[in-house]
Amino acid sequence: MKDIKSLTLPQLKEEMEALGEKGFRAKQLYEWMHVKLARGYEEMTNIPKSLIAKCQENFTYTSIKEVMVQTSAIDGTRKFLFELADGNLVESVWMKYHHGNSVCISSQVGCRMGCRFCASTLDGLERSLLPGEMLDQIYAITLATGERVSNVVVMGTGEPLDNYDNLLQFIKMLSDENGLNISQRNITVSTCGIVENMRRLADEKLQITLALSLHGSTQEKRAELMPIANKYHIQEVIDACRYYFEQTGRRITFEYSLVGGVNDTNEDAENLCRLVEDLNCHINLIPVNPIKERNYIESERRDILNFQNKLEKKHINVTIRREMGRDIDGACGQLRRRISANKSTN
């Protein structure tokens, strides 16, 4: 069965007409799901029982279940663990900033990209999420916090561009004026660099920010940390970033996790400057969040500042990402993996 929460308003109108209902019923249902954030049909007070019965018979209704919330004592960041209808678990993070509330959502259950420093990928890919399951992470957090979400980052568990069609539908629904109406300029999608889908996304001419997980300034260094680099050469990925900017006019963000003694040297900084010198970009330096399954360590503070300084001297926009939720399994996949492991041993 189709998930009713994953249908766009035009798709929902078609479905209603196919059930012999008037088109305006689609608008009512859509508003209940995507504006009033109803957790089930029982909350929809102006929908006839006969239509609710038809919907229950013909569609599934995504309503993810909160399993656990961890709140950071340091900065108030909240990490949510949600259970999907099939029992799978996904993580989302709510972060409070001066400019508004950001939510980081997952796009898959697990991940098959194999990045060496990431907990999300350790157990491989279980499945991709539907648009409704991505949206519902935001809806559930909005209801739990009682606060509006103004920025959405698709940077949690999973590789968003490995779930391309569902991702695209999710972006269009999230920014739809009939739903939460979050500006595309406030949506960021992260990718490890699936080149053909980066180019497809560029051709959509959306106004979202594309963030590339770079993490290495040469092909060799990147391949050491990211298996995807064995499929797509670093130059191919940079060319796709250039194409994205040409098509959309949107500045590229490069995510660069600093791993002590691996990619944080003066030489690495110089190579990175050369790699991106002609690109309209911003570089996010991220002190790596250590995971117990790997022996990578965070760079020393002086090395991080030195790296930043070298980039700034070349007039490259660079920031050191403010660390959020370090005390609450903050890194992608950590909480889900710990709870899943506990479930399997009980």
Explain how this protein is built.
The protein is α/β, with parallel strands linked by helices. Helix content is 36%, strand content 21%. The protein has eleven helices and 14 strands. It has a ten-stranded mixed beta sheet, sandwiched between helices. Strands 1-2 form a two-stranded parallel sheet. The longest helix is centred in the middle third of the chain and has 15 residues, at 131-145. The protein is elongated, with a radius of gyration of 21 Å. The protein starts with a strand and ends with a helix.
Total E-strand runs: 14
Helix content: 25-40%
Judged by helices, strands and strand pairing, the structural class is alpha/beta
Distance between the termini: 32 Å
- Oligomeric state of shown chains: single chain
- Tally of helical runs: 11
Strand residue content: 15-25%
Shape: elongated
- Encode the helix/strand succession as letters: EHHHEEEEEEEHEHEHEHHEHEHEH
Mean of all residue-level pLDDT scores: 91
* Main beta sheet strand tally, sense and closure: 10 strands, mixed
Q: Radius of gyration, Cα only, in angstroms? A: 21 Å
List unreliable stretches of 5+ residues.
none
